UniProtKB/TrEMBL annotation:
Domain Serpin, residue spans: 1-248
Lineage: superkingdom: Eukaryota
Protein known as: Serpin domain-containing protein
Keyword Nucleotide-binding: no
Residue spans crossing the bilayer: none
């Protein structure tokens, strides 16, 4: 959505970072439209997009039309000077748009006197493994955080045919675990060496998504899987990241 509203140098820089170079803007929007259409009425995946603009600001009709036809979204004026009231209204939209799957995104005081627009893109996914792990086989096992240190964790176990690939450039291997009733899968990458995580992550940074995707040539093999129960979450501050790629000024 941000790329659809960008022009000039900003658009060129975004194309470079997002691997859109050589693609027409219409084709980029069409690709997102196909994905959104595919999962629009899927109970397993909830996707919602919204563009909030400070009351009194005008959004060009052509951009609003693109949001409506390609992203099933719209630009909506809201009085962002109301702070917490605006946050509550936006969180109510988030809750409604995801059928209560996501209750809120904005914490208190995220919106301040300088806020003029908010671009929201939400994805919620809750799936079931196509080949579930048997809870009776979950045991306490050592999980190594480096070469020497470990901690006891609940480790799920399964043995059988799994899509597997060796990734020589990353000095790692990967498996793909599909979810039931969908084409979505989880890909898990494991470094070959017990202390190889940091090195593998550095290689990831210098590897494009296109070349990485090409290296995932999975084939079915008999594999023993020990997978710890885990929860992953993170926050990222985009201001410094955007500065690094020289996007301090958006032309929209």
């Amino acid at each position: 959505m941000a790329r659809m509203g960008a022009t000039g140098r900003t658009a060129a820089e975004m194309d470079q970072r997002l691997a859109y170079v050589g693609q027409f803007t219409e084709n980029i929007a069409d690709n997102y439209y196909r994905v959104l259409t595919k999962y629009r009425n899927n109970d397993m995946v909830k996707i919602a997009n919204k563009f909030y603009v400070m009351k009194g600001y005008h959004v060009q009709n052509a951009y609003n039309q693109t949001l409506a036809t390609k992203f099933f979204s719209s630009a909506e004026n809201i009085d962002l000077s109301q702070g917490n009231n605006a946050e509550r209204a936006i969180n109510d939209w988030i809750k409604s748009s995801t059928n209560n799957a996501i209750e809120y995104v904005l914490e208190d005081h995220v919106i301040n006197s300088d806020t003029r627009l908010l671009l929201l893109s939400l994805i919620y996914f809750q799936g079931t493994w196509k080949q579930p792990f048997d809870p009776a086989l979950t045991t306490e096992q050592k999980f190594f955080t480096d070469e020497k240190n470990s901690k006891l964790v609940s480790m799920m176990y399964r043995m059988g045919q799994v899509e597997h690939v060796w990734l020589s450039d990353l000095e790692a291997r990967a498996i793909r675990l599909p979810y039931q009733d969908t084409d979505i899968s989880m890909i898990i990458v494991l470094p070959n060496a017990r202390n190889g995580l940091s090195g593998m992550l550095e290689k990831f940074k210098s590897t494009s998504m296109q070349s990485l995707a090409k290296s995932f040539k999975f084939s079915a093999e008999n594999v023993e899987i020990y997978l710890p129960k885990f929860k992953a979450e993170f926050d990222i501050e985009l201001k410094e990241l955007l500065k690094k790629v020289r996007k301090e000024r958006f032309q929209a």
